[in-house]
Design brief:
- By secondary structure, the protein is of the alpha/beta class.
- Helix content is 35%, strand content 23%.
- It has 16 helices and 16 strands.
- Strand 14 and strand 15 form a beta hairpin.
- Helix 5 packs across helix 6.
- The longest helix is centred in the middle third of the chain and has 18 residues.
- Bound molecules: N-(iminomethyl)-L-glutamic acid and fe (iii) ion (FE).
Length: 422
């Protein structure tokens, strides 16, 4: 131990893409110093501004070897826990069938519901771990996981429990969203309102009571739930004290964004068909627009989300994988950064803010997403010279190490690119 040391760790010889607003692009600090104490960031600034010689400031000094540190990545919209796959539907879509045709014929979400209902909790966890591990290899430290492939109480709760267990098995924070209103289950095909009734009276309260839902989501769309039905779900969520979010304006303009805004939603997601009025409503309520370029790509959508409209209204934009077996079988958040730029014309800086600062906000988390003193010390060290490289390259993962609540993950300790010194 160093006499008089105040911090646990001090990182030197790196740049910091802090993603803090108001300074340089990316909140970039060159020749930075990052001090960590008790799992929190204690100092984020220029090395030249350190209050004392490095060796006297921390128990351990780590060498970033010229890399770039960013906040830990946050995947704020996933359906990661499910059974089966939909590769056959992929073939059908390539043959000309549309996502909506397949859904109306009882495939799509309902085919994954059948496969998910057939799995017990252990099997669901086992099926989901490889997907989670792929995301973690790319520096994800917080992930949102939805239910929505059970559509009856037991399986919905089982999905949420499996999601929670993933967070115990791996070094990642899992935030769960109850998405019982994802599709009308076959048992209620001719009585969707009766399903909404069951959902609001039994399914959602049970999930809330068991502490399994951090938020409530719904799919407001002509092949799913109407605005009136979504309103019932949101009203129940509000009564239970849970924040809401919404799959909105993905395939058509159903007015979902305005409804989400009315309920002060954390986020409205997809938004390809978002209207001017919808964007204004999101801006007024401070709701984050979560764009999902993976689903846009896989569904060969041609309607682009109105990025300029969102910018003009000052709506914060997040990006996520939407990892799911149908519209986005994608387990790479770095690929999503590239797609956000190439398909939606975000700047690499906007894309990175979309998986850090704005993604944290989309989950209602104000203790992460930027590197600043007082925030949780969740960060990733990348073997790159400039943060734009994260959105630029495809198929290359330059992660050198992940830091979670201050600690370099055990598998990254001793990594060639990270050394400890005094
Ligand atoms: O976000 N839009 C609705 N839900 C998912 C798709 C789920 C599925 O096809 O299984 C989405 O795209
Ligand atoms: Fe989704």
């Amino acid at each position: 131990m160093v006499m008089g040391a105040v911090w646990d760790t001090l990182w030197l010889n790196l740049s910091a893409a802090t993603m803090a607003v108001g300074g340089a692009p990316y909140g970039l600090i060159e020749d930075a110093a990052i001090g960590i104490s008790g799992g929190r960031l204690a100092f984020v600034g220029r090395r030249a501004d350190l209050p004392a010689p490095p060796g006297t400031l921390a128990h351990r000094v780590r060498d970033g070897e010229g890399g770039v540190m960013t906040p830990g990545l946050i995947d704020c919209h996933t359906h990661l826990v499910y059974g089966g796959d939909r590769a056959r539907e992929f073939e059908q879509r390539l043959g000309g069938a549309s996502y909506e045709d397949i859904a109306r014929a009882g495939g799509g979400i309902l085919s994954t519901v059948r496969a998910t209902r057939a799995l017990d909790e252990d099997a669901l966890v086992a099926a989901s771990l490889p997907r989670l591990d792929a995301l973690l290899r790319e520096g994800v430290t917080t992930i949102e996981i939805k239910s929505g492939y059970g559509l009856e109480t037991d399986t919905e709760l089982r999905q949420l429990r499996a999601a929670r267990r993933l967070g115990e098995l791996r070094p990642v924070d899992v935030r769960t969203s109850f998405l019982g209103a994802h599709a009308v289950p076959p048992e209620f095909r001719d009585a969707p309102d009766a399903y909404v009734d069951l959902l609001t009276r039994e399914m959602l309260p049970r999930a809330a009571e068991a502490g399994l839902a951090d938020a409530v989501d719904a799919f407001c769309e002509r092949i799913a739930f109407s605005p009136a039905q979504t309103r019932c779900v949101f009203a129940r969520a509000r009564a239970l004290g849970l924040p809401v979010k919404l799959h909105a304006e993905q395939l058509s303009d159903s007015g979902g964004a305005a409804l989400a805004a009315e309920f002060g939603a954390l986020s409205a997601d997809h938004l390809e068909y978002l209207s001017e009025a919808g964007a204004a409503a999101l801006a007024r309520s401070g709701t984050v627009a979560v764009l999902l370029p993976g689903a846009f790509y896989v569904l060969r959508e041609t309607q682009l989300p109105p990025v300029d409209r969102l910018r003009r209204h000052g709506v914060p934009i997040a990006l996520a994988t939407d990892c799911n077996p149908g519209s986005s079988p994608i387990c790479s958040l770095l690929l999503i950064l590239n797609m956000g730029c190439m398909l939606f014309r975000l700047t690499p800086e906007e894309a990175l803010a979309g998986v850090t600062r704005n993604a944290a906000r989309a989950l209602g988390l104000d203790d992460r997403g930027v590197l600043a003193a007082g925030m949780r010390a969740d960060a990733v060290l990348w073997r790159i010279a400039h943060p734009a490289e994260l959105a630029y390259a495809i198929g290359l993962c330059p992660r050198a190490g992940t830091i979670r609540t201050g600690e370099l993950l055990p598998q990254d300790v001793g990594h060639a690119a990270i050394s400890a010194s005094r």
